[in-house]
Write a structure and sequence with these properties.
It is built from seven helices and ten strands. It has helices at residues 17-34, 55-68, 79-88, 93-108, 118-125, 157-160, 164-167, and strands at 5-10, 39-44, 73-75, 130-131, 138-141, 181-184, 195-196, 202-204, 216-220, 227-230. The chain has a five-stranded mixed beta sheet with strand order 3-2-1-9-10, covered by helices on one side. A five-stranded mixed beta sheet has the order 4-5-6-8-7, with no helix packed on it. Strand 9 (216-220) and strand 10 form a beta hairpin. Helix 1 runs parallel beside helix 2 (55-68) and helix 3 packs across helix 4 (93-108). The longest helix is centred in the N-terminal third of the chain and has 18 residues, at 17-34. The chain is globular. The mean pLDDT is 97.
């Protein structure tokens, strides 16, 4: 049997560095058992920082993974990374701190966001908004895409959008979304379980890790239904 790439998408981490490493270990174990001859590609859909206890640890873990295996690790930017980056430039600092940035600052042992490590901020600034693997029916994004105008939508909305316009897949009229599945985070589910639209075309992986919920990964193997792993 020919090998393929199995995609593992991880939802919003929000400073839960220990749980992220545990989930990575779970993914490794799962892959070794169920897809040992296939390539493993891990996609993180954003919101690595704020609220949880170790934002710095999450960033350092992801930077190390990205540097070691850039072809099989993809990290997308979320709205909390955008807020952090803006604050590091002296912009909208109080807005970030009110939205969990205070916890991120504590993990760095800093009082001024302008002192955040330049290497970390450079890495964040270079993160893409979407990842669309060639030959697959998958679109990975942090918050969502505009269902009418994608891929010509406002990329800022990809980090921030919520609501029925995107969540209801019957609104998806862009021809570029035909037959595609959008995998995202950003909007915490209330039951700590992934939110899958009735037709399976939209999957929300933000299961509220920052609020006592699970940290979730979805496994995408071609021609199979997704499997979910949690810590």
């Amino acid at each position: 049997m020919a090998s393929e790439t199995v995609f593992y998408a991880i939802g919003d981490v929000h400073g839960e560095a220990v749980r992220l490493r545990d989930l990575h270990a779970n993914i490794d174990d799962f892959h070794e058992v169920y897809a040992p001859n296939d390539t493993k590609h891990i996609v993180h859909v954003g919101d690595y920082v704020d609220r949880g206890p170790d934002s710095r640890g999450v960033i350092e873990t992801l930077m190390a993974m990205d540097a070691a295996s850039p072809e099989t690790v993809t990290c997308l930017i979320g709205n909390h990374e955008e807020m952090m980056l803006n604050a590091s430039r002296g912009e909208d600092i109080s807005f970030w701190l009110r939205n969990g940035g205070d916890s991120a600052m504590a993990s760095y042992g800093l009082s001024d966001p302008c002192d955040l490590p330049a290497s970390h901020m450079d890495w964040v600034a270079g993160l893409p908004t979407t990842f669309v693997p060639e030959g697959r029916d998958l679109i990975f994004v942090h918050a969502g895409v505009d269902p009418q105008t994608y891929p010509d939508d406002d990329i800022v909305k990809r980090r921030w959008m919520r609501g029925s316009r995107f969540f209801d897949t019957s609104n998806w009229t862009s021809p570029m979304l035909t037959g595609m599945r959008v995998v995202h985070g950003h909007t915490p589910t209330r039951d700590a379980q992934p939110d899958v639209s009735p037709d399976g075309r939209r999957i929300n992986l933000d299961t509220g890790a920052a609020f006592g919920g699970a940290l979730t990964a979805a496994v995408f193997k071609a021609a199979e239904q997704p499997v979910f792993l949690q810590t």
